[in-house]
Amino acid sequence: MIWVMLFTGILLGWIVEWVIDTYRYNRMIERLQSDHNRAIIDMTNRYEATLEEERLLHDDRLNKLQERHRSELNITEVEYNTRISEHTTTHRQELEANQQRLQSELESRDSAYADAKNVLEQGYREEVAKLKSDYEQRLRETGASLRSQYEQDHEQQLINLRETHNDELNGQEIRIRSEYEDELTQARQNNLSASQQQIDEHDARLKRDFDYALQQSNAQHRIEFAALKGDYEQRIDELTLLARSQTIVTTEPVASYGGNGAISHVKADTLTIDDLTVIEGIGPKANNLLHDAGINSYRDLAHADIGTLQHILDDAGSRFRLLTPATWPQQANLAAEGHWDALAQLKDQLDGGKPAH
After folding, report:
1. Which of 39-53, 320-334, 343-357 has the lowest mean pLDDT?
2. Is 355 helix (H, G, I), strand (E, B) or coil?
């Protein structure tokens, strides 16, 4: 009987100890589970904070790059306008000086004509011959001076003027003055036309130099932006892989959240806006016009219909109707594919977006 009671006591003691150990084990499991959940939540919060910090840093660097780009464009445009203004002022002063010189020569010839008229009225044929010789000498000197300044533009006119006056001095005085004034007026008009042509050619050279400098600057900025974008995407991918390697423990079934137990990487929708002035024939105003029409990237322009582009230009006003978009999609396709050397070779064969003659 004693042995039965002793065995029963031992059995009861063992059962009580087992119940206590089981209770302690369950409490320890719950505490470890709670600590694990808190660790997962902290890790998730740190990951989200890191992503947000990386996004803010990228946005800040992108904004600085865009501001520097706009600043350089503004400086280049101001320099271009200053050079155009200085060049126009210089040519205007040259035109005024030429007009004054021509007016002085006209007054000098009017005086010589008055002297010749007085001699003719007096009837002294010897004086007429002498005046004719003096006039021819003066005309030759004037022709030499004009040829040294205007060369081919006025050489034939001076010869015609001298021959005309040589013939008309033997005729009536009214014809002499009429022919002289006609030739001088034509010379003045040709001088003004030649000067205006020089101004237009110089303006065209300045515009080509400005467009080339702008294209080089835009190409460098695109390279820097591509490097920043590649670095940003690489870091995002690394953080994504790190997050996917962690298991999330929740009180709800993991399958209800998707992602097969891993944190999914979600990319935000982005809108690509390219600088279309890289395309030959597209200036800053045409660039803004195409952006307003929904053509924001090289890819958009490459797939655009030429008729649609021409319709956009025609609706924008007369200053855009002179633009020719025939080669824009071809150039944009090369830019979208990153074939910058091929694009540069194509642009060398174009003039304002049209094949050079």
Report:
1. 343-357
2. strand
